[in-house]
């Protein structure tokens, strides 16, 4: 779902997980495991314990294209939300948990760029990743796959 009125870069998807927010949080908050879930993330090297201010060096891949990024955790609310910003492009990626009761949790993944994306990012997406529309569609598919993988890991462990 894209909401262009507030943020033309906003992408969001969610799923319901048959597990408590605590159980979902244990998996989602361990960013070191991101390569297990995200189809584009190959490495996420974390510096120090995970919390606001934690930095990482990331390696992403889509087809033959490979690119590094860095990120910094900008929100860390146990059992509620974790978010990290990618400074080179201005995007913020987040995972939010909502307690649905009865041992169920809604898990949402969001990509936003409230200040817009960088000119460098826009040009690279245009030249190498098929343009904004195609890349956003790919990201939405990958976000759904990411949440399905997280859901599977959490539900198998409960």
TrEMBL record:
Q: Which domain of life is it from?
A: Bacteria
What Pfam families does the record point to? Polyketide_cyc2
Its protein name is SRPBCC family protein
């Amino acid at each position: 779902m894209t909401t262009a009125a507030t943020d033309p870069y906003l992408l969001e998807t969610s799923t319901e997980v048959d597990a408590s927010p605590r159980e979902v949080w244990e998996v989602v908050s361990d960013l070191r495991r991101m390569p297990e879930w995200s189809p584009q993330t190959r490495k996420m090297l974390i510096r120090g314990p995970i919390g606001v201010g934690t930095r990482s060096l990331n390696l992403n891949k889509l087809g033959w294209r490979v690119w590094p990024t860095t990120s910094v955790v900008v929100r860390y609310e146990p059992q509620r939300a974790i978010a990290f910003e990618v400074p080179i492009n201005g995007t913020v990626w987040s995972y939010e948990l909502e307690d649905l009761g009865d041992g169920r949790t809604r898990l949402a993944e969001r990509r936003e760029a409230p200040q817009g994306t960088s000119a460098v990012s826009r040009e690279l997406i245009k030249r190498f990743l098929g343009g904004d529309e195609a890349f956003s569609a790919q990201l939405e598919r990958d976000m759904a796959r990411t949440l399905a993988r997280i859901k599977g890991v959490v539900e198998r462990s409960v």
